[in-house]
Amino acid sequence: MEHRTAILDTSGTTPDLPAPEVPDDTLTDLLGRVSRTFALSNRFLPQPLRRAMTVSYLLFRVSDYLEDNHVMSPARKVELLNLWERVLSGRGGEEQLRCELENLEDDDPEAEVARRFPELTQSLAALGEASDSAVRRRVCETTRGMARRLMQGPVVETEADLDQYMHDVAGIVGYLITEIFSHFDPRLARRRSAMMGRAREYGLGLQTVNVIRGLRKDYARGWLFVPRHYLDEHGLSPRQFLSPMHVERSMEVVRRLVEKAEAHLRDGLEYVLQIPRHLHRVRLATMWPLLFAARTLALSRDNRDVLLSEAKMSREDVERIVRRTMMHGWSNRWLARYHEQLLRGEGV
């Protein structure tokens, strides 16, 4: 049975009406405003897989906005994340959430995506029961994980806690894209079980790099996604970690995170290699985030900018990676070698 999300007239005189689906050009615009990297990868996917992935990604960004925004207290974020999970699971609350989001004074692009959740959920329902059910289940899992992290506080205690958080926000995404792929292509459906075995690592690799890239930004909003025992090993408190007075010891912690990211990315490559070579467009859309992460990680290694601001790829790096993979990315041997070169800071 398909879920339907209704916009209610507050006067109570109009019956529930389904929100309209979001047109493809509007989806593309929304996606480009909240993620240039994913937008680049996604546009190479064939339809209707491209639309399914776009809608799914934007629904995850609703959860991201509720967790990351700067206009709510942590307690308020937890409340609205729980409400969003209720909406997704079909237990009501659509009108309450719509009113809450419309009353926020926030013009961030992600706020606009969140406000359009009724249209996005209607677009999701139109994808068919299998995709609708899978996306709702996975976004609910992520949303519950985000609420749990907010309740636990701004510092992670152990590496297991960090992995759990990264699983909630990225490992689950790896599972979902595998499910969506299998819904739209029988060749990928036959490989679903094998791909699921690596899907979590694919997501954790991307997210560990995001943690490294976002160290300064996250700290500015009161969060530190570095296991406390990493800091303890080098005699650092969370407050000291990003202090200019402790750069040398802090960079040892960063090196530990880089090593962890490398391990996840190497496992994530195995995920990409399981996609049949003749599905070149799907491979490209999946390999690009991984290769961009590998390049970003190489730029972050032994780079104090990760503590001061952020280590970022250049536009030229992106263009070169895209150009080379479009020519050679069908080859598993070439791709494995190129991925390793990028991790070492070579061969862009």
According to CATH, the fold-level topology of the largest domain is Farnesyl Diphosphate Synthase
Coarse structural class: mainly alpha
In the sheet with the most strands, the strands line up as: 1-2
Order of helices and strands: EEHHHHHHHHHHHHHHHHHHH
CATH class of the largest domain: Mainly Alpha
Tell me, what's the shape?
A: globular
Number of domains: 2
Helix count equals 19
Please tell me about this protein's structure:
This protein has 348 residues and is an all-alpha fold. The chain folds into two domains: 129 residues, Farnesyl Diphosphate Synthase; 195 residues, Orthogonal Bundle (Farnesyl Diphosphate Synthase), CATH 1.10.600.10. It contains 19 helices and two strands. It has a two-stranded antiparallel ribbon. Helix 4 packs antiparallel against helix 5. The radius of gyration is 20 Å and the shape is globular. The protein starts with 5 loop residues before the first strand and ends in a 5-residue tail after the last helix.
What characteristics describe this protein?
348 residues, mainly alpha, Farnesyl Diphosphate Synthase, 2 domains, two-stranded antiparallel ribbon, 2 strands, 71% helix, disordered N terminus
Strands, helices and their partners?
Layout: E1 6-7, E2 17-18, H1 24-34, H2 36-42, H3 49-68, H4 74-88, H5 94-102, H6 109-115, H7 117-125, H8 129-152, H9 159-184, H10 186-189, H11 192-213, H12 215-220, H13 228-233, H14 238-241, H15 247-273, H16 280-300, H17 305-308, H18 315-328, H19 332-343
Helix pairs in contact: 1-2, 1-3, 2-16, 3-6, 3-7, 3-8, 4-5, 4-8, 8-9, 9-11, 11-15, 11-16, 15-16, 15-19, 16-18, 16-19
